[in-house]
């Protein structure tokens, strides 16, 4: 099946046209086709099909449209929250077009001009009219049709440029006439028309075209022709050039240059062949990353017959740089005109017939670079900058990042000496890590070692360990990391400097704009973009919630922290200003995961409608927000604790507990609880200590460390207030239950149920009813718990009890009811995106399948659950899944598989101290032993 959107929408299967008739069906299909294999939310699709004012029934109608399209198109799949079209992107002409354009450009860059022109011609042949013609969707047109049309025009101009380089001016002149008639303000097309006409000897027509477009631009836009068009005019007027000199100005290569093979290969492959359009490359990255070294090393190895120009830009003006470059090209001093525009025209005229390499080092912005770019065929420009110079037209950029560990040690060895580094490999790796792979820092560290033969690498690594003096240590002669960073800092505006130093209060490796706004106390999006442009931050791309994330080098962070301390005082002040926003966001996200205010015992009752809405949107979004911010929030707990913001530290640690539990992020859980406990104890906050001891007990119980869990709860009991005692005893009951101490567990649950009921704590009552019902195998108690969770609007609680009831119905030989309960619970947890509860539900569903006499189905469900439990390192869940899998193998008469599975289950239950699970596993092991006739 083939799908065409480059023109009217068309669906073809062989010779058959299967294009849907209704307009809205075509719009929905186009929306899916333009992002094949990518999930699209229902909200996104509604906006693209109906625009800003969809009907109230849009979601239901959308399902009808999807159902209708499935009769025509295979591969439309339902995913959580929306749909996706599972087709090969190459079945969609827009993706084939983009792929062919990219292939043509690669072929062009490799110097195969004729082949590149053919590739681009094949790409353009896919178009049958305007993109998405007949599709009535402003959203789709803005997001997809407009960029596709622009790429089409750009590809056409690129193909024409290749044809002109091949001397095919006569073949493209007519095509260019049509192009400028359709797009009269595209200056590049006019310039190409002039060159095509001149190429076939029609010079007067070429000059007439220039007069026509100049009049059009002045009348329509009030602008004179741009640089490219003026250059075409000058080339038509005269092919002559001033007398030539062959400059060779690049600085000497660096003796101990290390690595960067990927970047050097990219530069080598980007060199334009003679007669093809010039290429401009931007090497960008943070201070000290070695951008200039790469550019100079590359330049010295490239052969350009008409010479190499070099300019160190820094804060110099384009006019001053042009004066130097013109003299380097042999322009007499008296011929260098004062007017900037005249200098630019003279420069471009002088380089138009030369094949030059131009290195523009340390550029501040696009405006500084544009006038200096050579325009002659076959020229190459290497620009270095902290910014990617995204606004530099027709330039390609490559980020010069830090070295990986191997490259870092190699550079250290080149500077300090191979023998010394080989003698202390572990210390060398530590130095490389503490320098963060930054070439400047590594060069300084190596230089200090080279100048001090008596120093060991271990000694220098020890000096670098202390963050407070690391920047002091990274100084050798006139090389200092601090001064390199200071150059960038001084070039910032006051608001940019304020944000950068405030960010120095954070130790997180990356952060979102909301966190930057919190420390700044004002919106920070534009400032973050500016800092990324300046090379002091790195834009890391969009996270799962659609926000741009920013990171930075650790040495930049230390410099920002220095500036904060020097200019504003201790970091606690900046962190305190951000604490409220950080805590509020995390508390709100937690409140969506749990239907009760953290630690209060007060229940937030939701209506059924609210619960449904939360199941499908807010709960999943809450978990997603916490997931993307996990690293930031864990680091922030440590920041709060380190700077004495104890209240914020213990509260943030506590708010994160349910997220860590759901995602099985146990190391993060352990670290934050430990820090939170220290803060709560330091400030003497008994309630905070109780809540975190309770969290610690939950962690120990999840890990199967039941003795430690009981100890944590017993430490919390004497500190707890009345309302919290029942919650602690409830958890003690769960620990007793796992230890097989059923009478103690029952006593805890009965006492808790009475306390929760008396206090009106509906959440606690639901939890206690579930625990007691599970212990007693009492359906009435479990049903009451289920009803309580439903009243709370707690889909997670409802799902958990549904699984409990399903297991009970299996034991009571009621498989039909068990399946209904299990499938209801699975539906809930899948909508929430909870992987571990889903795995638990699959184990229950496997038991149901066994009761129904379908062991093959049971085996599949148990194996899927086991995979998830292993992925999350959940040993208790893995034990339950292995036990169920063993039962399925026995029913399938695959005794060896059963023996392996039950052996794993016995080992896990024994390690966890789960006596009840161990007893069930040993029963199954005996059956497997009987079947195989030997002892396990």
UniProtKB/TrEMBL annotation:
Q: Does the keyword Transcription regulation apply?
A: yes
The cross-references to Pfam families, in alphabetical order and at most eight, read: BTAD, Trans_reg_C
Give the protein's recorded name. Answer: DNA-binding transcriptional activator of the SARP family
Q: Which UniProt keywords apply?
A: DNA-binding, Transcription, Transcription regulation
PROSITE patterns noted in UniProt: OMPR_PHOB
**Entry-linked Gene3D superfamilies:** Tetratricopeptide repeat domain (1.25.40.10), Winged helix-like DNA-binding domain superfamily/Winged helix DNA-binding domain (1.10.10.10)
DNA-binding interval(s): 1-87
| Signal peptide positions on this chain | none
What protein family is recorded?
Belongs to the AfsR/DnrI/RedD regulatory family.
What GO molecular functions are on record for this protein? ADP binding; DNA binding
**Which species is listed as the source?**
Streptosporangium subroseum
Q: Where is the OmpR/PhoB-type domain?
A: 1-87
Q: Which residues cross the membrane?
A: none
Top-level lineage group: Bacteria
PANTHER family found in the cross-reference section: TRANSCRIPTIONAL REGULATOR REDD, TRANSCRIPTIONAL REGULATOR REDD-RELATED
One biological-process term from Gene Ontology?
regulation of DNA-templated transcription
- Tell me which SMART domains the record gives: AAA, BTAD, Trans_reg_C
């Amino acid at each position: 099946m083939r799908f065409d959107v480059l023109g009217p929408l068309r669906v073809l299967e062989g010779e058959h046209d299967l294009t849907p008739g209704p307009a809205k069906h075509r719009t929905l299909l186009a929306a899916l086709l333009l992002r094949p294999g990518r999930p699209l939310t229902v909200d996104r699709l509604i906006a693209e099909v109906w625009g800003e004012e969809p009907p109230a029934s849009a979601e239901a109608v959308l399902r009808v449209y999807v159902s209708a399209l499935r009769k025509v198109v295979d591969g439309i799949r339902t995913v959580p929250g929306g749909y996706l079209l599972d087709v090969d992107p190459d079945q969609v002409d827009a993706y084939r077009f983009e792929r062919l354009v990219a292939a043509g450009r690669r072929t062009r860059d490799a110097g195969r001009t004729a082949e590149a022109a053919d590739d681009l011609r094949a790409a353009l042949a896919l178009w049958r009219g305007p993109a998405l013609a007949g599709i009535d969707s402003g959203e789709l047109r803005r997001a997809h049709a407009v960029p596709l049309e622009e790429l089409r025009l750009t590809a056409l101009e690129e193909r024409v440029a290749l044809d002109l380089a091949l001397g095919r001016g006569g073949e493209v002149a007519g095509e260019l006439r049509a192009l400028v008639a359709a797009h009269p303000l595209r200056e590049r097309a006019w310039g190409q028309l002039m060159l095509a006409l001149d190429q076939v000897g029609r010079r007067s027509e070429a000059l007439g075209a220039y007069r026509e477009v100049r009049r059009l631009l002045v009348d329509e836009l009030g602008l004179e022709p741009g640089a490219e068009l003026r250059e075409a005019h000058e080339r038509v007027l005269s092919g002559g050039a001033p007398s030539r000199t062959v400059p060779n100005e690049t600085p000497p290569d660096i003796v101990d240059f290390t690595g960067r093979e990927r970047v050097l290969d990219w530069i080598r492959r980007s060199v334009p062949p003679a007669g093809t359009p010039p290429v401009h490359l931007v090497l960008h990255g943070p201070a000290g990353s070695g951008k200039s070294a790469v550019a100079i090393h590359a330049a010295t190895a490239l052969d350009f017959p008409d010479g190499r120009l070099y300019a160190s830009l820094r804060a110099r003006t384009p006019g001053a740089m042009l004066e130097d470059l013109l003299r380097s090209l042999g322009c007499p001093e008296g011929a260098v005109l004062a007017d900037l525009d005249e200098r630019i025209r003279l420069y471009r005229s002088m380089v138009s017939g030369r094949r030059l390499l131009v290195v523009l080092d340390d550029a501040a912005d696009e405006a500084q670079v544009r006038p200096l770019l050579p325009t002659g065929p076959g020229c190459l420009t290497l620009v270095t900058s902290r910014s990617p110079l995204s606004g530099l037209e027709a330039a390609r950029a490559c980020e010069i990042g830090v070295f990986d560990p191997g490259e870092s040690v190699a550079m250290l060895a080149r500077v300090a000496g191979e023998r010394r580094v080989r003698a202390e490999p572990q210390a060398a790796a530590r130095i490389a890590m503490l320098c963060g792979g930054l070439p400047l820092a590594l060069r300084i560290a190596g230089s200090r070692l080279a100048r001090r033969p008596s120093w060991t690498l271990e000694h220098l690594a020890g000096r670098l360990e202390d963050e407070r003096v690391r920047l002091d240590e990274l100084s050798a002669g006139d090389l200092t990391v601090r001064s390199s960073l200071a150059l960038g800092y001084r070039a910032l505006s006051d608001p940019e400097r304020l944000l950068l130093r405030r960010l120095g209060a954070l130790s997180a490796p990356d952060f979102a704009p909301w966190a930057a706004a919190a420390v700044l106390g004002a919106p920070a999006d534009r400032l973050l973009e500016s800092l990324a442009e300046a090379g002091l931050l790195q834009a890391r791309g969009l996270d799962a919630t659609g926000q741009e994330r920013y990171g930075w080098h650790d040495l930049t962070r230390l410099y920002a922290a220095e500036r904060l301390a020097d200019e504003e005082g201790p970091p606690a002040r900046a962190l305190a200003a951000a604490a409220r926003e950080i805590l509020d966001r995390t508390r709100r996200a937690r409140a969506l995961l749990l239907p009760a205010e953290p630690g209060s015992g007060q229940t937030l009752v939701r209506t059924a409608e609210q619960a449904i809405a939360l199941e499908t949107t807010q709960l999943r979004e809450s978990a997603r927000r916490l997931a993307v911010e996990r690293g930031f929030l864990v680091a922030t707990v440590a920041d709060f604790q380190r700077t004495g913001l104890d209240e914020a530290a213990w509260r943030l640690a506590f708010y994160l507990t349910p997220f860590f539990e759901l995602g099985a992020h146990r190391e993060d859980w352990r670290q934050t609880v430990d820090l939170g406990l220290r803060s709560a104890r330091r400030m003497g906050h008994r309630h905070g200590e109780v809540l975190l001891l309770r969290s610690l007990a939950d962690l120990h119980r999840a890990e199967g460390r039941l003795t430690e869990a009981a100890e944590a709860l017993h430490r919390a009991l004497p500190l707890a207030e009345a309302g919290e005692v029942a919650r602690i005893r409830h958890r003690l009951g769960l620990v007793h239950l796992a230890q097989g101490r059923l009478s103690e567990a029952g006593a805890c649950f009965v006492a808790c149920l009475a306390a929760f009921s008396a206090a009106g704590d509906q959440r606690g009552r639901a939890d206690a009813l579930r625990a007691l019902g599970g212990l007693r195998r009492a359906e009435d108690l479990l049903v009451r718990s289920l009803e309580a969770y439903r009243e709370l609007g707690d889909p997670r609680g409802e799902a958990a009890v549904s699984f409990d009831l399903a297991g009970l119905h299996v034991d009571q030989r009621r498989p039909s009811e068990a399946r209904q309960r299990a499938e209801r619970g699975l539906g809930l947890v899948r909508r929430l995106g909870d992987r571990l509860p889903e795995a638990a539900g699959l184990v229950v569903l496997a038991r149901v399948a066994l009761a129904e006499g379908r062991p093959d189905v049971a085996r599949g469900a148990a194996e899927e659950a086991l995979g998830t439990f292993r992925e999350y390192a959940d040993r208790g869940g893995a034990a339950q899944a292995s036990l169920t899998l063993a039962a399925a193998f026995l029913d399938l008469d695959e005794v060896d598989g059963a023996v392996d599975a039950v052996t794993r289950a016995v080992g896990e239950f024994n390690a966890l101290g789960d006596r009840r699970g161990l007893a069930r596993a040993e029963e199954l092991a005996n059956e497997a032993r009987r079947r195989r006739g030997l002892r396990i």
